[in-house]
Amino acid sequence: MSDNPETNDPFTIDVPPAAEPAGEQPASAAPTVEPRPISESDERTLAVVSHLSIFLNLVTGFLGLVPPLIIYYLHKDRSRYVAYQSLQALIFQLVFWVGGGLIAGLFWAITGITSIVLVGLCCIPLAILISLIPFGAYVYAIVAALDTYKGQDFKYWLVGDWVRKTYEG
Fold first, then answer.
1. Secondary element (H or E) of residue 45
2. d(CA 160, CA 85)
3. What's the whole-number average pLDDT of the chain?
4. What is the predicted pLDDT for the residue at 33?
5. Under a CB-based contact definition with an 8 Å cutoff, are residues 120 and 111 in contact?
6. For residue 141, is pLDDT > 90?
7. What does the DSSP 8-state code read for residue 5?
8. CB burial class (10 A; 0-12, 13-18, 19+) of residue 55?
9. Closest by alpha carbon to 142, among 50, 40, 69, 42?
10. Over 55-119, what HEC string results?
11. Is the CB of residue 54 less than 8 Å from the CB of residue 64?
12. Is the pLDDT of residue 20 over 80?
C-alpha cells in the first residue's frame, strides 16, 4: 500500500530509487562453459527420435524434418554420434520425400498423358510401385531406429557416406 498521501490507490507501491554505484567496475568476461557430454542412453534416444520423426510426415506432410534439425543444432557440439545420426535422418527424409515425391508425381503425369493412347494404361502398375518408394522409407527408418537403439552406428545407403564426409570434412 502506498504511503504517499497524494495517492489513495491501494495497488501503488513506492519503490526507492536504486543506489548509484560508487565507481565503475570493470566488465568481466563471461566464463566459457564446455558443453556437457551426453550419456550413451540419451544419445541412443535422440538418435531414435531423429530417425522415427519421419512418421510426422504422415500427419503433417513435412514437419518430420523439424525434430532431426533441432536435435542436430542442439547437440552437434555435445555428441558426434547424435549429430551424425540426426543429420543423416534429415538428409534421408529430404531425399526420399522430395525426390521420391517428384519422381512419383512425374511418372503419374506421364502415365496420365499417355493413357489416352492405351500405352499409359500399361504404366499404371509401374506408377503404383514407384508411388510406394517414399513409403519404403518408413521401413528403412524403423530399421535405423532399431539399430541406433541398440547402440550401433547406423548408416543409410548413399546418404550415410555423404553425410560422414561432409560432417567430418
1. helix 40-52
2. 9
3. 80
4. 65
5. yes
6. yes
7. T
8. middle
9. 50
10. HHHHHHCCHHHHHHHHHHHHHCCCCHHHHHHHHHHHHHHHHHHHHHHHHHHHHHHHHHHHHHHCH
11. yes
12. no
| Spatial separation of the C-alpha atoms in residues 17 and 45, rounded to whole Å | 51
pLDDT of residue 24: 55
Whole-model pTM: value is 0.69
Question: How far is residue 119 from each of residues 103, 114, 124, measured CA to CA in Å?
Answer: 19, 6, 10
Q: Assess contact for 57 and 90: CB atoms under 8 A.
A: no
Cα gap 89→61, rounded to integer Å: 16
Please identify which residue in the block is written with the cell numbers 510406394. Answer: 132
Q: Which residue has the cell 506421364?
A: 110
**Grid coordinates of 22:** 560508487
* Residues belonging to the chain: 169
